[in-house]
Design a protein that fits this description.
The complex is a heterodimer of chains A (437) and B (248). The longest helix of chain A has 18 residues, at 393-410. Chain A is of the alpha/beta class and 437 residues long. Chain A is 23% helix and 37% strand. In chain B, the strands form three sheets. A six-stranded mixed sheet of chain B has the order 6-9-10-3-11-12, with helices on both faces. In chain B, strands 2-1-4-5 form a four-stranded antiparallel sheet, covered by helices on one side. Chain B starts with a strand and ends with a helix. Classes of the chains: A alpha/beta (437), B alpha/beta (248).
Amino acid sequence: MELKEKLVSSFLAFESTVDTKSTVHDIRTKAIKDFEAFGFPTKKVEAWKYTSLKNVLKNDFALFSKNEVAIEYKDVKKYFVHDLDTYKIVFIDGVYSSHLSSTTHDKFDVCLMSSALTQNRFKAVIDVYFNKVAKQDGLVSLNTAYSKEGAYVYLPKNVAADKPIEVVHFSTGSETAMLLQPRNLIVVEDNSEVTIIERHQSLSKNKTFTNSVTEIYAGKNAHVDYYKIQNDTTNASLIDNTFTEQHDHSVASVHTFAFGGEITRNNLNFTQKGQGIDSILNGVTILEGKTHVDHNTLVEHTEPNCESHQDYKGIFDEKSVGVFNGKIIVDQIAQKTNAFQSNNNVLLSDKATVNSKPQLEIFADDVKCSHGCTIGQLDESALFYLKTRGIPEKEGKALLMYAFANNVLDSVKIPQLKNRINALIAEKLGVSIGFDL
Amino acid sequence: MLEIKNLHASIDDKEILKGLNLSVKAGEVHAIMGPNGAGKSTLASVVSGKEDYEVTEGNIELEGEDIGELGADERAHKGVFLSFQYPVEIPGVSVTNFMKTAINETRKARGLEDMPARDMLKMIKEKSELLEIDSKFLSRSLNEGFSGGEKKRNEIFQMAMLEPKLAILDETDSGLDIDALRIVASGVNKLKSKDNAVIVITHYQRLLDYIVPDFVHVLHDGKIVKSGTKELALELEEKGYDWIKAEL
């Protein structure tokens, strides 16, 4: 049976595990119909021209985990920013692990989507925000239809989260192939602040396919920093759909560190609904092997006096493939918009590929918008210069690549996280030196 | 220290060095002069190990060891230093971090532990004072947006930090005003000792008023065609290079 049919027909079985009388379930029921109509995207769709899911979708994915697998913290400690005190929401094969999680809090909610969707005290927030920011397409509808579990974070007005929140999804390989569909909702009301660090990690050689949807709502003067660490195994594919809606004078940033996986697609959408808003989309992509990462960004400027800053750096070795498709829309009313986008890539091999496609749709006449993309090789003269100072080729290349990615790393505000990213990069580049650039 | 015998080197099948001989002993300063296109910068690149050049004949020995097959980094570990005519700008790498990496990679290659951070800072402070370099300058990206004089001072600062046995200064005087020239030259003079050697490659005599050579060589068409003492440089300044060509 094709995966699509399997997903549509399994919806009945899924319904037996949720409350079908809720308003949320009306949303699910509509979504499964939408998915049936949309199906999975193919390369015929312009936005999916460079990324094919065909091979991934061939697997016979289990939709629900049958076995509960226990994981000891010491075995997975390295996947956390363990020298940083954080709230932790951890899932194993899509199921919440209270053992690995740490959610004790008082002034705001750090909990599970399954609780938020079913318990009365969350209903008011769910009614207002759930599935409101997300734009529906085949994959988002599919996630919505099966939405049940994920991270739920709610900050009422005037609260700054006292520590970052880590959301980690492990897949253990308890099924030969597993489809995971986490659904996250992050609501940050006026004048509140939160930082989230998200990671998906497969712990086995079995196939994992994650279709994740995250909705982020930033109220007036709210501040949200979201860091995504994508360093999964070559048996794990990820579709990350993240939708951010921002209101007056809010600042929201999403950093995506894409270092691994089989196929990774980041659909990152920002909608600005207010003035004085700043949206920051940064990414560092370092790939080798046959890894494929596709960043698909959309920033919609719908009101005057807002900014957006996109800076994506990519380093591609061997047969890896990178895609950057960045769209900026400036509505006619959105005067005095400052929208900047840059995508710089370095190819280390003749067989690596980068497809970079900036798209600007500007309907206002008094705006500052710029975009630039470059694709090049490492500077040989710089490498020789480093060598004459005693820095060997491998370390010299690493140093140049660090320098290349440096301004993106610079905007990571948590030192422990920055160190972790640096360590991951050093590991990727096979060097042991720690450049504290 | 350095023995170059019958060195032939070419780039893209074009022969630039055509049988060059040069012998430099510890404690000596040699100046290599010559008209444009004589092969001066090629000599600097070939000795420091630039892979674009192919050595087709002859050999290069440093302290009795053939270094002709070594990479530029390995030559650096053995004590070769090249001060670039055009230092490369490396955005995103600060001078300090670059120096730390260079020193510790060199120490690693020599089987030594990393230099303790305190010693490193102390050394950086000492050597930057020698070149009259402001401490703010050290946290800037390497050579990025540096003036010509700053770049050259930074080159000699690196030389001071790395303490090479053989330093090759390629057109270090180009792009320098007189004050910067004085600082750079005085830095080089302070670093000179009986155990190291300096090769000064220059087009003009001006730098040699400050860094006084023991020997002056004239490079022409890929060979050293005349050698002498510092007076030769003065003669070249006065008469140009044509009389040497005429002598050949």
